[in-house]
Amino acid sequence: MRNILKMHALSSGFAGALVNIFIPIYLLTLGYSLVAVMLFLIVRHAVILLSAFGAVFVSNKVGLVRTLWIRFGFLFLYLFLLYLLQREDGLLMYLVAIVGGIETAFYWIPLNVLFTRYAQTERMAKQMSHFFVLPEVAGLFAPLIGGFIAVSLGFPALFVFAFLANIGAIGFLGGLKQEKTNFQFSLRRFKEIWHRNKTYFVSEFFDNITEETVGIIFPIVAYLSLLSVTDIGSIGTLLSLGMMIFTLLIGRFADRYDKKKMLRLGALLLIATWLLAFWTQSAIGFYAVSILLGFFLRLFLIPYNALLYASAKTDDAQFLVLREFPVISARIFVFALAILLAAHLQLVFLVAALTLFYFFFFNPRRNT
């Protein structure tokens, strides 16, 4: 478990935080329209869904750890293609989206399966908090550093820094056991997993609307309002700070309290924060909302994901792959909505707030 968390902290936490928040901003600075950026994200996430099955097929053959090795190859290609985008245009953007989707699927599917296998059900919330907080500690100042590098040295230098950081993350793969998956591609098996986990398949759709709005739409709205790359770096750091503080506070206690009551409280506070975000226009306002989103998203996600991953242990890789359908559907919904509301992008915040009301009726025991 330690090597899994260390690799995750360095690759997703530090290296990912260096660049991920800036990818849509990078495309906007290259002259792509908001609609083109959303289409890029739609293609990328559609590829993630298709590649999730490819990742498990590969892990069936060569194992989860070797699948992660393959992922790093796609990641380095993705960063190189992002670098080339400043010189090329047109279809290259969609090639970048395709490669980015493949590398994402080949990372998160084996990572989630390994975490689910090693995590202990009775300590799931505490271990989930470690899964969240270590990347946040490692990447706390990464968005701020990334913004400084992008402004001072340019986005290509930022991609080089992320490349070097990921080389360091590869070193932690050596100590992991070579485990395989045994995913069965059958309609009967799919129906069994759906029946057993249908509450989670629905909740994953609504959950990911807020997650993607926090991770993608909120930084874009802030950038379009403030037109400052360094401000986006500061917002990313404040988001991470809020998440880290609340993760440390909540993870220790979540296993001892009613998780459904905790996630409902988190949903209520997120609704209030989205309403505040809708009216925010100043830099200070965006900074304050960033901290609040970080706080309350973790208050919501730690108990929710503890319930989700405890259920996932029953079906291992099969459930974690099939849940990509509602996850990706929600993200594509957010990006399509952003296209429709491009002139008033803040309206997406209100939609995210509305979808959180679902969790006041969330009852996972019905399918266990």
Structure report:
The protein is mainly α and 368 residues long. 79% of the residues lie in helices and 0% in strands. The chain is built from 15 helices and no strands. The longest helix is centred in the middle third of the chain and has 40 residues, at 187-226. The radius of gyration is 19 Å and the shape is globular.
Please outline what is shown here:
With 368 residues, the chain is mainly alpha-helical. Helix content is 79%, strand content 0%.
Describe the SSE topology.
Layout: H1 2-19, H2 23-29, H3 34-62, H4 64-84, H5 92-118, H6 124-138, H7 142-152, H8 155-170, H9 187-226, H10 229-251, H11 259-279, H12 283-312, H13 316-322, H14 324-340, H15 347-355
Helix pairs in contact: 1-6, 1-7, 1-8, 3-4, 3-5, 3-14, 4-5, 4-8, 5-13, 6-10, 6-12, 7-8, 7-10, 9-10, 9-12, 9-14, 9-15, 10-12, 11-12, 11-15
Quickly list its features:
single chain, 368 residues, mainly alpha, 15 helices, 79% helix, globular
